[in-house]
Amino acid sequence: MRAQEITFLKLIQGEKQFQVPLYQRTYSWGREQLSRLWEDVSELVDQHLSGESATPHFLGSVVLAPGQFQAGGVQRWLVVDGQQRLTTLMLAFAALRDHLKKAGDARDVTRIHHQLLVNEYHEGLEHYRLLPTQADREAYTACIQSRAEAGGSDNIGAAYRFFLGALAEGQEAAGHDQWVATVGTVLKDLLSIVEITAEPGDNVYRIFESINNTGVGLSQSDLLRNYVFMLLPKRGERVYHELWLPMQQSLGPKNLELLVWLDLVVRGHHKTKQSEIYREQQRRLQPLAGDEDSLQREIAQLAERGRRFLRIIEPRREQSPALRTALERLAAWGGQTHYPLALHLLDLVDGGTTTSEDAAEALRYVEAYLVRRLICQTPTTNLNRIFMEAPKELETDRPAAEAVRRFLSGRRRRWPSDEELHQAIRGKPFYWSGRPPQRSYILRRLEESYGSSEPVDFVKAALTVEHVLPQRPAPAWFDLLADETEPDQTPQELHDLLVHTLGNLTLTGDNAKLSNSPFERKQQILDSSALRMNQEIAAERRWGKSEILARADRLTERAVELWPGPIGGVKPTGEEWPGWAELRAVLVAMPSGTWTTYGDVAELIGSHPVPVGTYLGSNPTVIGAYRVLTADGKVSPAFRWTDGSDRQPPQELLMSEGVKFDPSARAHGSQRLTAAELATLLGKDVAQPASHDPLPAGEDTAAAERFRAQLQEYWPDASAGVLSTLDFWRLQGGYVNYGRHEETSCFPMLDAGTSRRPHLMWPMAIYPVSGTVEVVFQYLKDRSPFDDTEQRRELLNRLNKIDGIDLPEAKLELRPSFPVRVFAEHGEEICGVLDWFVHTAALDLAQRN
């Protein structure tokens, strides 16, 4: 085999084709991998534009083997390894081409298409420079050919849409066309790939197996340890037992690797990635080769920093009460974002440069910065980089707390002001912010601010977040809201704008009892709570819009005291409202063949349908703007393309993507994305009204009886079909779980694992009151074998053959639903689909074992 390091352009150019063999998995990169690549590309673009010498970024290796060659045809290469990188870069260039097409740059559009994406003078499959596996080809060629269905719900479509959005937002921020041209230069010439070429006659599959079926590799810290002790031939054994081994044992492998990276960051190497730890540390220590005294001091310093790091991850070790409290709060908040700055502050404390109290106050500003950003739903882009830069950028001629506050108050670091915090608490869907433990943490700290003489033990109390105005309210709740609606607003729309806001949320241990009960019943339960915030809610006469907003105002006052804002405390003038950036992001995230409403978008971003319509009306070129329709699924009469645009009318464009319209020009409801589904597409942790958590085997007989009673009450014709289907499921080896809320949801569960390694999955969730059956693709996509898009698509197609079920393919990553009433006449057909589901899971288990 031969290896050489080349750029992407040199790898791809010429009349050739890269074929992905059928034995390889489908394209699998998601938002995390794409974001990481885009961060690297953006950093190179910034360096290039600022005149810095940009070092090529190493993207990884691609292993190729010669394919069959026919006279007059292209040179074929089999992609033995590296298809994820190749496919991603091809999709990035397809998005760049289409971005330039909108700008009217015909020359560059043609150049990218013919130089990189296709073989201009060949037809059929030979036309494409990259030919993915058959399962990915339709989605991939749609992107390469800019067809209407490009950007579908699979990973190929999601990657294409990701780059379209990143390019649009990047150019908007840069404000000039040179930025886009530089992106093209970086993608072509500054991404380094090692091309490894096999010889004709090599066993290609054996090479693939050896690459992808190796044992556990050495970690970055393992490599560093081996390197360091190779340089300590005389005192290595003593240094290992006295310094390295105790550090390794106290931290564990993962935290040791994290420490080695943090050590570099705190030293000022803030651009170092965790995958480059060994190389950077080796470069730093190389000059000390032959000086065992200096190397021993380096390891001693690392061990000392390791003891400080333990105080961050285990705050009980901290001796100072003030600093211990600050570290405990950040540990409860979760995540590793604050680690570089926290470690730097402990360095200053132990070095005598600052006091424990000053460091604690600095960490209070860190907590305030993180909490305010979450409440205001400020994008987390560059958040890690901000904290990595902090140790190097902090001013040293002032107290640490003041220096941290000044640093985080920088214009580009987006510390929300008091005004922004107030608006977010009143209008943003807090229930979709951050992770569930972070939401609970904020409510807990707000409760603690009441200063109760008998504080609640939140560790033992097992409290969960409760919606006072329910997520699924009974009609009486809508009657109450009807008195407070604005013109042209329905009670449902008002409910959707209020229900997830912080003013409507509290903590309780009685979530199942409260459920969607009338407010009078909730008052009784909340009044007996030990939490002051619950007693305050119970004291209200009613619970509607005015009460929720009034509570939001009171909570804002507490939040401002708990979590101070930036220096100056005023929103910078001239800055765009962050909600519009979120609007653009979610429209990019929508797969082709879907639509949403102005109300859904407003609910997501914490606005109102009217300003959403006004914004899109004045910015019709926003990607996906035509997918936002009125509440009844019609194109808004006010929607207009910009003058001179040759684009199809919105309805025709949506129909070309596969959206169905009825004779009254209303889009089909099954293809609509709700606010919750939009939030899911953005990666928000959208909890559901009824628990989806898989429980241990063994059915709750009381809950089962409630489910049967509700099913019989609301859907008597379908009741027998549902219950016989569940009996069939049990005969296949499954069991049934039930939700704990007033609407007793039902989950047919299957453990497709072993006694030592359970592998729980469930194909659907049945809601007897609302009469819906959710097909839980969102959860199945993380569980083998349904992590394969083709298996989920097969499940969807089998269900769609049943009369009354119409699940859109665009929701293969979400939770589309069909009516419970389908069970009335088609229970046996649903059993047939479930039989296939169980058989597929069993076959996968056999292959895994």
Q: What proportion of the residues is helical, as a percent range?
A: 40-55%
Distance between the termini: 33 Å
Shape: globular
Strand content: 5-15%
Strand order of the largest sheet: 1-6-3-4-2-5
Q: What's the tally of helices? A: 36
Q: Evaluate the radius of gyration.
A: 29 Å
Task: Outline the low-pLDDT stretches.
Answer: 689-696
Structural class designation = alpha/beta
Largest sheet: 6 strands, mixed
* Number of β-strand runs: 16
Summed over residues and divided by their number, the pLDDT gives a mean of 89
Describe the structure.
With 849 residues, the chain is α/β, with parallel strands linked by helices. 52% of the residues lie in helices and 8% in strands. The strands form five sheets. A six-stranded mixed sheet has the order 1-6-3-4-2-5, sandwiched between helices. Strands 11-12-13 form a three-stranded antiparallel sheet. The model is unreliable at 689-696 (pLDDT under 50).
Name its key features.
three-stranded antiparallel sheet; six-stranded mixed sheet; alpha/beta; 16 strands; 8% strand; 849 residues; 52% helix
In short:
This protein has 849 residues and is of the alpha/beta class. Residues 689-696 have low confidence and may be disordered. The longest helix has 31 residues, at 236-266.
Detail the topology: elements first, then pairings:
Blueprint: E1 2-7, H1 8-12, E2 16-19, H2 31-49, E3 57-66, E4 75-81, H3 83-102, H4 106-117, E5 130-131, H5 134-144, H6 155-174, H7 178-189, E6 191-197, H8 204-212, H9 220-230, H10 236-266, H11 277-285, H12 292-313, H13 321-333, H14 339-350, H15 356-375, H16 383-393, H17 400-408, H18 418-427, H19 436-448, H20 458-461, E7 464-467, H21 475-482, H22 491-498, E8 505-508, H23 511-514, H24 519-527, H25 532-538, H26 545-562, H27 578-589, E9 596-597, H28 598-605, H29 609-618, E10 628-629, H30 650-657, H31 675-681, H32 701-714, H33 716-731, E11 735-738, E12 746-751, E13 760-761, E14 764-767, E15 772-775, H34 777-780, H35 789-800, E16 817-819, H36 823-848
Parallel strand pairs: 2-4, 2-5, 3-6, 9-10
Antiparallel strand pairs: 1-6, 3-4, 7-8, 11-12, 12-13, 14-15, 15-16
Helix pairs in contact: 2-7, 3-4, 3-6, 6-27, 9-10, 9-11, 10-12, 12-14, 13-15, 14-15, 14-16, 15-17, 18-26, 21-22, 22-28, 24-25, 28-29, 28-31, 32-33, 33-36
